């Protein structure tokens, strides 16, 4: 790969830190946009540039100097307990207006390619097997803002000639992961019996290593330009299989007991935890084979290998 100059936004984040390290190791010149100063675990050789809040008025001129490719990871992310009075407006300010502003400045600065990390939630919360032909079904403000940002990018691409690549990942896990994945890990480690033996779902996840490898592959692969790419590990996994894999990696005994899924969801509804339980019980399968074929790529890690590495790093 040529010595590309890549700007990574959201470089202090879970994916951003790993991606900067990956690109630096692969010979890229990396500029990392961060909201605060360089992280404690800064990657040697990466140029960190402090950026204020991302919105329609952010000045990206310094960060974009000499850049060939932008990888836009920074976003207002989905939260389980929303606190603002206008969630859609808050998501639009960062994810739509902020993305549009960055892309316009990138095109003006001569950036060749703009890679945008969207979300599989643009296609809904699951049910049928999702593939490249699945219709848009954004069901919340976060997903709607990602979809709107995608449309803004295609409009900029049409008017400027800058190549755009949209990537839609599912839940990303790996060393340093927080959120639901870490909570599951803690539950398995506790040894408490879990009422999930009756769950018969399949979910596609995406390991951090596989995600960074895919982004690296898309930096200059000619087939990536102008594409919307679904991301995901090669194999889908059920919640009981995921829990067993976590238990095996921890070296503990998994204790599951059967309980009707409809009952779990009813109790979760009463406790205000329905969304969390739906993610444990429902399916979300992604067919990403078209992405693999277009980019001539295969996942470096299997699901079980990636889960083991995630556990070992905690």
CATH-wise, what's the superfamily of the domain at 5-168? NAD(P)-binding Rossmann-like Domain
CATH class descriptor name of the domain at 5-168: Alpha Beta
Q: Which spans of ≥5 residues are poorly predicted at pLDDT below 50?
A: none
Number of strands: 9
- How do the strands of the widest beta sheet line up side by side? 3-2-1-4-5-6-9
Query: Based on the structure given, which CATH architecture of the domain at 5-168 is correct?
Result: 3-Layer(aba) Sandwich
How many helical elements? 11
* Major pleated sheet: 7 strands, parallel
> What is the arithmetic mean of pLDDT?
92
| Broad structural category | alpha/beta
Q: β content, as a range? A: 5-15%
Radius of gyration: 20 Å
End-to-end CA span = 33 Å
Query: Shape, please?
Result: globular
Order of SSEs, N→C?
EHEEHEHEHEEHEHEHHHHH
What descriptive keywords fit this protein?
Rossmann fold; seven-stranded parallel β-sheet; alpha/beta; 314 residues; 11 helices; two-stranded parallel sheet
């Amino acid at each position: 790969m040529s010595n590309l100059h890549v700007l990574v936004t959201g470089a202090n984040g879970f994916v951003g830190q790993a991606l900067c390290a990956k690109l630096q190791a692969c010979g890229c010149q990396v500029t990392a946009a961060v909201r605060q100063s360089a992280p404690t675990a800064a990657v040697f050789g990466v140029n960190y540039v402090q950026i204020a809040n991302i919105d329609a008025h952010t000045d990206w001129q310094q960060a974009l100097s000499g850049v060939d490719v932008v990888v836009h990871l920074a976003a207002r992310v989905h939260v389980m307990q929303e606190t603002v009075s206008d969630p859609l407006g808050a998501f639009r300010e960062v994810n739509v207006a902020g993305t549009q502003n960055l892309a316009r400045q990138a095109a003006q600065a001569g950036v060749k390619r703009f890679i945008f990390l969207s979300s599989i939630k643009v296609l809904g919360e699951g049910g049928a097997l999702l593939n490249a032909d699945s219709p848009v079904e954004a069901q919340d403000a976060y997903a709607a803002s990602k979809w709107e940002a995608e449309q803004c990018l295609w409009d900029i691409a049409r008017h400027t000639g800058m190549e755009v690549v949209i990537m839609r990942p599912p839940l990303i896990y790996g060393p340093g992961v927080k959120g639901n994945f870490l909570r599951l890990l803690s539950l398995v480690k506790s040894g408490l019996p879990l009422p999930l033996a009756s769950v018969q779902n399949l979910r596609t996840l995406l390991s951090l290593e596989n995600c960074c490898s895919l982004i690296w592959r898309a930096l200059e692969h000619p087939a990536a330009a102008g594409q919307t790419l679904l991301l995901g590990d090669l194999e889908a996994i059920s919640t009981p299989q995921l829990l067993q894999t976590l238990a095996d990696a921890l070296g503990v005994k998994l204790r599951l007991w059967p309980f009707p899924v409809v009952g779990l969801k009813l109790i979760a509804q009463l406790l205000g935890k329905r969304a969390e339980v739906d993610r444990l019980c429902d399916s979300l399968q992604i067919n990403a084979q078209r992405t693999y074929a277009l980019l001539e790529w295969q996942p470096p890690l299997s699901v079980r290998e990636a889960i083991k590495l995630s556990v070992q790093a905690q």
